[in-house]
Amino acid sequence: MLPAGCAGCGERTSGARQGFCPGCVRELESLRPGPARPSPVPPALPPCVALGPYAGALREALLAYKERGRHGLARPLGGLLAEVVAAAVPGPPRPVALVPVPDTAPAARARYGDHLDRLATHAAARLCAAGWPVRVLRPLRALPRPDSVALDSAGRAAAADAAFRLRRFGGPSLADRDSAVVVLDDIVTTGVTLAAVSRVLHAAGMPPKAAAVLAATQKRRHW
Questions:
Q1: Cβ 217 vs Cβ 59: under 8 Å
Q2: Per-residue pLDDT tens digits for 40-62
Q3: What DSSP character marks residue 20?
Q4: Which residue spans within 161-209 are E strands per DSSP?
């Protein structure tokens, strides 16, 4: 069988490593997590850390994973997301509760599963292997919302505010209350989704310490 194309550049190579050619592996390994702040900053957005800009091999890998069914990329992308979480919660390893932004039911069906949930599972496994006490919590459900392409900034913020609800969830356990809550997403653009999720979690007694994402769009943030 022919080797699959590199998820970062599309090159067909027999030397791929977890879906990436050597050149794209080097590109991804060269990225270092840093602060990502949209402009303007939406209210309630926690400090946000991104692995890198939404460009190059990282952008192509996310598209391949989310839109082209390359589910095997969940492991390497989850490992990269673990690096972002570690940077978002500096200091020695400490208890962390990861809360992935949930997919809507139609999106999860189209992608054969919640794409952020898969990344969170692999990120948690990587962090646990490094000595971090980490749990993945799923206290939220996503409701259908209109396509953001047709909305202005105020409309996107309003749609995001109405998009998330708590599941039947009695709140975090005592151990979770001692954990640093980190919201996970794949890409941050305006920040309204992360801010909306953070408001729901804050109201539930789980104020996020940070948000960790793989990529940040360049036009709306300072790197």
A1: no
A2: 999 999 999 999 999 999 999 99
A3: B
A4: 164-166, 180-188
